[in-house]
Write a structure and sequence with these properties.
A two-stranded antiparallel sheet has the order 1-2. It contains 14 helices and 2 strands, in the order αααααααββααααααα. Helix 3 packs parallel to helix 8 and helix 3 runs antiparallel to helix 13. Strand 1 and strand 2 form a beta hairpin. It is globular and about 55 Å long. By secondary structure, the chain is an all-alpha fold.
Length: 354
């Protein structure tokens, strides 16, 4: 049996399409973290050249540790920013968590594990309060969390001075539970000539876990949806209020986690610590490809942004330069990151041929 195959006449125009085909380079650039990755490579090579002490393995592990102390909370701040909100209390809550744990247990003479759990509950309550107030009142999260920032900052200083007579918390070295908590939150592994702080491992775990949730789960879709357009997300059944409150509580949880590290790494906390770190978390997220308008970014990029922070803050010291230049660098990086992110977002929204 013969079969007739119909073919289009020679020279006939192909079916019209209004979609744009992106080349490989543009598809790579459309990834939120690519700009940060390129910047990290350039900065790394730069400091290898200008700072000889930067080339040693111990220096690299020190950079990783410095990056992790910012990167853990920056992961949560990045998630919150993708969800379209900010938390300016993220810096001081780390100090609040540690001071609460130390002073509560010191005054009552109880095991530090009890204080750590109560501190976690307290911090989660702060996160819930921030999220609930934002969703209940409609007041921008910038203002709500700015208020929380000042309340916590004042309480850290006032309560600590009232209880201890100074602006330093009690020393936890000899208190029950200190050793086991120190192992979880501040243990240092000796690997040949280098030391690896456990916070680096926790940082990578949190970044990868958050990236998986964002890219592979329904909750991740909800986060992008509420950050892109909360009204549209609510219209299709996304629990906007629960998602946003959960994101604020995530910031508080990782703030508590970092506060536990500070407490059990140094054993004594200064009540004024943490102020200003909230901007470092935001900068790490923005440099890592997160848009300040919400709905775009990922936590791998945030981790790279934190690594850039660690490299620069220590690289300037290793190079023998005035450390004051670090703040100037952060400002330049923030401005450049905003411009790059806008361009990358434009590429990412360009329609491709399926």
């Amino acid at each position: 049996m013969s079969q007739t195959v119909k073919t289009a006449p020679a020279g006939a125009p192909a079916e019209a399409s209004n979609r744009v085909t992106l080349g490989l380079s543009n598809r790579l650039l459309a990834r939120p973290e690519i700009g940060a990755l390129v910047a990290a490579i350039v900065i790394f090579i730069f400091f290898l050249i200008v700072a000889p002490s930067f080339r040693s393995a111990p220096s690299l592990f020190t950079v990783l540790y410095q990056s992790s102390t910012i990167g853990i909370v920056a992961v949560a701040v990045g998630l919150l920013m993708i969800g379209g909100e900010f938390d300016l209390s993220a810096g001081v809550i780390t100090t609040t968590a540690g001071l609460f744990n130390a002073m509560f247990c010191y005054q009552l003479g109880i095991n530090l594990w009890v204080g750590a759990i109560l501190s976690l509950i307290f911090c989660l309550g702060i996160g819930f309060f921030n999220g609930y107030m934002v969703m209940r009142t409609g007041i921008p999260s910038f203002l709500i969390t700015l208020g929380s920032f000042f309340v916590l900052q004042g309480a850290n200083l006032g309560v600590t001075k009232l209880v201890t007579g100074s602006v330093s918390g009690p020393n936890t070295t000899q208190m029950a539970g200190s050793k086991s908590l120190q192992f979880i939150f501040a243990h240092v592994f000796q690997i040949g000539p280098v030391q690896l702080n456990i916070t680096v491992i926790w940082w990578l775990i949190f970044a990868v876990l958050a990236a998986y949730i964002l890219q592979r789960t329904r909750i991740g879709n909800w986060v992008y949806a509420v950050g892109g357009n909360a009204a549209s997300a609510r219209a299709v059944g996304v629990p906007v209020t629960r998602v946003k409150i959960g994101l604020f509580m995530t910031v508080s949880f990782l703030g508590w986690f970092t506060g536990m590290h500070y407490l059990y790494n140094f054993n004594v906390l200064q009540a004024g610590n943490g102020v200003g770190n909230e901007f470092l978390y935001i900068i790490a997220a923005v440099v890592g490809g997160t848009l300040m308008t919400g709905g775009y970014g990922n936590t791998i990029g945030v981790a790279i942004g934190s690594f850039i922070f660690g490299m620069t803050s220590l690289g300037i010291v290793y190079a023998g330069w005035d450390p004051n230049w670090f703040r100037a660098f952060l400002g330049v990086m923030l401005l450049l990151a905003v411009l790059v992110n806008l361009y990358v977002k434009k590429l990412s929204t360009t329609r491709k041929v399926g």
